[in-house]
């Protein structure tokens, strides 16, 4: 198991290097730091001195890949690639345009992100699976057809509508919870309630339909017929046989996103003014703070790869046939 | 000639897609085995009604794709000068809607502006009141006549549309066998007739902050949504098809390289990757203002670039599916027979493998369409969507979102954008389901 994990982590390295090279190419080769400086300082009437100063402040005044002016290992390290890109492997993301340390900012913002994303994920999972099981139980009846139709309509509605509509209805019309904001400790509950509710509702359509397909596929297997032939009740077949066997396809889709919960949700957080990583990213995009966006891209792929490894481990927990070696 | 046709980049790509679609349709018509699944789609009432709605949207989008620039009044030198404003046939058809702009917000069917203004009345006194609209309901003397007028005009329009629709169904009765279509066609024409007759004198969906008609904005947004949903496939399709099939068929190092590329791309959360790419594109566009003749050309190029970025970030899922399918197919006897006969790899790929994965491609493409239309709105909100000057559902929602806090609330622009989007995406989803059911060989049909 341990050996397998170590091997998997080594397999992940080339992919992370690829991600790193890709972001490097995107942010420094497609447009040179000069272009970025010119854009940030205003296109017209920008002096070469101002560009130089902008680059110096941010540490972009070095050669891209190879510093021929330096000597020894400095040839490699005194470059933009080494200092801005390769350094991300040790989670040193450098400084944002407002001068704050990005790594520290990320650590501080993970909490609020998780406070929204984790309950949304857990409650959502339970709600979607139950709804899908209900539809499977009443398969072919009017209830099932109505459920599927509801799912199709719900998944055709824009995610923005759920947020705007929910905010209007719950906060503005009924005054149940504050429209936006965030508090510490027990106070946070007031602010977390609505985003979580909206997050759960907006996912019902596509997720429940997906789980229903999985359950239906499982229900057509031979072991289900055997179980029914033994005289087991439909409920028992569904809960002890179908649900257990459907765990593998469910886990494939679900476990991958668990680490990504740390990243929060871009839309929810910015609409509700939650100081998490999602709103941090949106702010950075709007302010065109390239170093933050770069850091988030890298962090996102690290977490995604962690999710893939977790998925493999979770298989061993639910499927005794799977052994990691 | 008083105008010159303008072909923007996105127009060219739409025409390319249209040509490809027509060629594919003609090819399918000639081959019975390809026609069979489509016939199953044609038998489904839900699918055909969705197709009717989609066809209506597509027609609007295509009319909006035929662009031109009108000539300005002749200058003294006798040289022809064309207006920098790029218009479309749709703009021409909706000329009154486009040009009759009010000062600012007004509610649907309103006669007055939504904001008080200082007006001098007959006695020379300055009073704060809601001024009458310049165009909306200008033919009425006062508010009390409005209900009767709206009802009358609505009824006349609906009746005209209904008659036209029934006539159309009667003319096409041999081809329209489905009862649902025979109901849906008159219903759609009735709605069009009603809206057209009312829109002539009212702002049916109100006006926005700068007084533009919301119905006009919604109709213009359709093209943007359709382009995002379809032009993107021009990038996704070749990448996913060639790389996926090649990886599955050749295996070995080719497979390793292709798998590595798509694993790297798919390991970056898609919104972030799109955001990063769009930010970089923006830098390029902004530092080269001399590339574009008109602002429409700049907005258009940004739209095309957005489609390319969306395509480059979203081909990985389909590629993985196709690789898996090609891995399965290459072990089948008929492929091995072809190999034994010495057929070249390229020919095996194009003649024997690609036609047999086309159903997967088709299902994936129709399924992606609605997701892309929805994504446009989200990306515009995040700030990495289409150009702010381009009319789209995303920019409409973005502009209207700030008005949520207003008392009383301005709801119509949001409702219009979400409503149009829901109709488009719902129709696309229902149609996609029917296509999947008809083409997926795993679903047993008994």
Unreliable segments of 5+ consecutive residues of chain B? none
The string of secondary-structure elements of chain A, in order, is HHHHHHHHHHHHHHHH
Helical content of chain B, roughly? 55-70%
> Which class do the helix and strand fractions of chain A yield?
mainly alpha
Which secondary structure elements does this structure contain, and how are they paired or packed?
The complex is a heterodimer of chains A (325) and B (446).
Chain A: H1 2-29, H2 33-41, H3 48-58, H4 74-77, H5 80-85, H6 102-137, H7 142-155, H8 159-173, H9 188-219, H10 222-229, H11 234-245, H12 247-254, H13 257-260, H14 266-272, H15 277-287, H16 290-318
Chain B: E1 3-6, H1 9-30, H2 32-43, H3 45-63, E2 67-70, E3 87-88, H4 89-93, H5 95-99, E4 117-120, E5 126-129, H6 146-171, H7 179-199, H8 214-250, H9 252-267, H10 270-287, H11 295-314, H12 316-329, H13 333-340, H14 345-382, H15 393-401, H16 412-439
Antiparallel strand pairs in B: 1-2, 2-3, 4-5
Helix pairs in contact in B: 1-8, 2-16, 3-7, 3-8, 3-16, 6-7, 8-9, 8-11, 8-12, 8-14, 8-16, 9-12, 10-11, 12-14, 13-14, 14-15, 14-16, 15-16
Which tags fit this structure?
heterodimer, A: 325 residues, MetI-like fold, 16 helices, globular, B: 446 residues, 5 strands
Question: Could you explain the architecture of this structure?
Answer:
The complex is a heterodimer of chains A (325) and B (446). By secondary structure, chain A is mainly α. Chain A has helices at 2-29, 33-41, 48-58, 74-77, 80-85, 102-137, 142-155, 159-173, 188-219, 222-229, 234-245, 247-254, 257-260, 266-272, 277-287, 290-318. In chain A, helix 1 (2-29) runs antiparallel to helix 16 (290-318) and helix 2 crosses helix 3. Chain A is globular, with a radius of gyration of 25 Å. Chain B is globular. With 446 residues, chain B is mainly alpha-helical. Chain B has 16 helices and five strands. In chain B, helix 3 (45-63) packs across helix 8 (214-250) and helix 8 (214-250) packs parallel to helix 12. Helices cover 67% and strands 4% of the residues of chain B. Chain B has helices at 9-30, 32-43, 45-63, 89-93, 95-99, 146-171, 179-199, 214-250, 252-267, 270-287, 295-314, 316-329, 333-340, 345-382, 393-401, 412-439; strands at residues 3-6, 67-70, 87-88, 117-120, 126-129. In chain B, strand 4 (117-120) and strand 5 (126-129) form a beta hairpin. The interface between A and B is large, with 46 and 44 residues.
């Amino acid at each position: 198991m341990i050996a397998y994990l170590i091997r998997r982590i080594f397999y992940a390295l080339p992919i992370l290097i690829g991600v790193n090279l890709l972001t490097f190419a995107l942010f420094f080769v497609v447009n040179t730091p000069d272009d970025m400086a010119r854009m940030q300082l205003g296109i017209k009437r920008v002096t070469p001195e101002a560009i130089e100063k902008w680059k110096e402040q941010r540490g972009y005044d070095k050669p891209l890949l190879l510093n021929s002016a330096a000597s020894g290992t400095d040839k490699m390290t005194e470059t933009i690639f080494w200092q801005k890109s390769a350094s991300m492997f040790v989670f040193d993301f450098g400084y944002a345009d407002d001068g704050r340390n990005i790594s520290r900012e990320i650590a501080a913002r993970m909490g609020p992100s998780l406070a929204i994303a984790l309950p949304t994920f857990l409650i959502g999972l339970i709600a979607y699976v139950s709804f899908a099981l209900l539809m499977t139980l009443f398969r072919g009846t009017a209830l099932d057809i109505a459920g599927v139709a509801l799912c199709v309509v719900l998944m055709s509605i824009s995610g923005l509508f759920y947020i705007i509509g929910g905010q209007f209805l719950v906060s503005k019309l009924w005054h149940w919870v504050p429209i936006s904001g965030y508090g510490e400790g027990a106070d946070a509950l007031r602010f977390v309630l609505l985003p979580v509710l909206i997050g759960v509702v907006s996912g019902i359509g596509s997720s429940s339909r997906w789980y229903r397909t999985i359950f239906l596929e499982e229900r057509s297997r031979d072991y289900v017929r055997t179980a029914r032939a033994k005289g087991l009740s439909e409920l028992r077949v569904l809960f002890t046989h179908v649900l257990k066997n459907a765990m593998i396809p469910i886990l494939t889709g679900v476990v991958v996103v668990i680490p990504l919960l740390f990243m929060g949700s871009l839309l929810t957080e910015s609409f509700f003014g939650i100081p998490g990583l999602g709103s941090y990213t949106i702010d950075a995009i709007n302010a065109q703070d390239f170093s933050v966006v770069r850091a988030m891209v890298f962090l996102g792929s690290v977490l995604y790869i962690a999710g893939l490894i977790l998925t493999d481990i979770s298989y061993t927990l639910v499927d005794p046939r799977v052994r990691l070696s | 000639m008083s105008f010159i046709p303008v072909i923007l980049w996105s127009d060219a790509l739409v025409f390319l897609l249209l040509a490809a679609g027509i060629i594919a349709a003609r090819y399918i018509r000639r081959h019975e085995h390809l026609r069979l699944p489509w016939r199953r789609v044609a038998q489904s009432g839900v699918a055909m009604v969705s197709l009717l709605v989609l066809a209506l949207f597509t027609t609007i989008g295509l009319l909006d794709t035929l662009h031109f620039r009108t000539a300005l009044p002749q200058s003294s030198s006798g040289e022809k000068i064309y207006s920098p404003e790029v218009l479309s046939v749709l703009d021409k058809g909706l000329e009154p809607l486009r040009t009759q702009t009010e000062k600012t917000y007004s509610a649907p069917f309103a006669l007055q502006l939504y904001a008080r203004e200082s007006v001098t009345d007959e006695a020379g006194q300055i009073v704060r009141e809601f001024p009458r609209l310049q165009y909306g309901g200008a033919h009425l003397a006062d508010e009390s006549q409005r209900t009767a007028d709206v009802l009358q005009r609505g009824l006349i329009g609906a009746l005209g549309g209904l008659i036209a629709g029934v006539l159309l169904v009667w003319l096409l009765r041999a081809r329209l066998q489905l009862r649902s279509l025979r109901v849906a066609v008159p219903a759609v024409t009735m709605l069009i007739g009603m809206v057209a007759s009312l829109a002539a004198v009212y702002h049916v969906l109100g006006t926005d902050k700068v007084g533009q008609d919301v119905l006009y904005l919604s109709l213009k947004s359709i093209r943007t949504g359709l382009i995002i949903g379809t032009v993107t496939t021009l990038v996704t399709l070749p990448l996913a098809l060639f790389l996926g099939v090649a990886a599955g068929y050749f295996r070995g190092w080719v497979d390793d390289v292709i798998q590595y590329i798509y694993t790297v791309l798919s390991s970056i959360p898609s919104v972030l990757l799109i955001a990063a790419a769009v930010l970089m594109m923006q830098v390029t566009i902004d530092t080269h203002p001399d590339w574009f003749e008109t602002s429409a050309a700049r907005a258009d190029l940004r739209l095309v670039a957005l489609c390319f970025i969306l395509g480059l970030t979203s081909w990985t899922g389909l590629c993985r599916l196709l690789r898996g399918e090609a891995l399965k197919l290459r072990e089948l006897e008929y492929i091995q027979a072809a190999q034994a006969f010495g057929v070249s790899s390229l020919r095996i790929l194009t003649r024997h493998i690609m036609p047999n994965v086309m159903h997967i491609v088709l299902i994936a493409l129709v399924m992606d369409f609605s997701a892309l239309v929805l994504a446009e709105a989200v990306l515009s909100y995040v700030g990495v969507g289409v150009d702010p000057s381009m009319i789209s559902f995303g920019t409409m929602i973005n502009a209207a979102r700030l008005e949520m806090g207003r008392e009383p609330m301005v709801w119509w622009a949001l409702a219009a954008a979400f409503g149009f989007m829901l109709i488009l995406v719902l129709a696309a989803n229902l149609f996609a389901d029917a296509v999947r059911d008809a083409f997926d060989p795993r679903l047993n049909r008994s």
